[in-house]
Design goal:
Blueprint: E1 4-8, H1 10-16, H2 26-35, E2 40-43, H3 56-67, E3 72-77, H4 81-90, E4 94-97, H5 117-129, E5 133-138, H6 144-152, E6 157-161, H7 163-166, H8 172-191, E7 195-199, H9 207-213, E8 219-222, H10 224-233, H11 235-246
Helix pairs in contact: 2-3, 10-11
Amino acid sequence: MPASLSVNLNAVALLRNRRDLPWPSVTGLGRIALAAGASGLTVHPRPDQRHVRFTDLPELRALIDDEFPQAEFNIEGYPTGDFLALVEETEPEQVTLVPDDPEQPTSDHGWDFVANHEMLVAIVKRLKKGGSRVSLFCDPDASAAQIAAAVATGADRVELYTGPYGGCHDDSAKAARELEKLGKTADAAIAAGLGVNAGHDLTVANLPALCRRIPQLSEVSIGHGLTADALEYGMAGTVGRFLKALAG
C-alpha cells in the first residue's frame, strides 16, 4: 500500500502572511488537498507565527472533523511548554517532534536520541496519554545506537529527514548514495518496531525511488515542493500528481 500523503500548509501560510489579507486561505487550500485525496494536513506553528498562525489550528481541526473525518492532522514542532499546550488543545492524530531552534527557517537535522533521551521519554508519554501518535524527526544516517534510543523513548514512528536526498536533484549519483543512507536507517527502524515517515524537499521526481527503496514507508509530509507545483498545476492537480508518484 502506498505511503499516505500529508500536505504541509506552512508555505501557503507564509504566502498569505506577506499581506494583511485572508488569502490564500490556509483552510481553503487544505480543503482542496483533502478533497483531492490527501490523507492529512501538516502544520508547524512556530513561536513567532511567521508561517501557520495559532488561530489556524482550530479552523483546520474543524475542517477535518466536520468534512474529512478519515483524515489526520499532524502538528510538528519543538516541544516547548507552549507547543505542548497548543497540541493538547488541538488534539492532532499525530505529533512530530523536531529539535529545531525556534529561529531556524526550517527543520534541518534529526534528534540526538541518546543525549535527549530523558526529555523525550517524558514528552512522548505525555503526548501519547493525550491520544496522539508520536513521530520523532530522525537523521537520514542514524546509527544503530540512535535507533535503539529512539525506540526506548516510546515513540511510534520516526520521520526521516530527506533534505540531503532532495538536495541532490541535479546529481543522480549523489542522490543514490543519500537514498541508500535513508534506506538503511529505515530498515533498522522498521526492524526495531518503529513506523517510518519521511519529509523535506520531496518532489514528484524523487518520490518513486524513495518509495521503492522503503516500501513500508507509512507517510510523507510535503510542503515546499508541493506548494511550488500547485502554482503551476493547482492544488487538486498537484495532489493527484504526488499520489501517483507515491504509487510508483
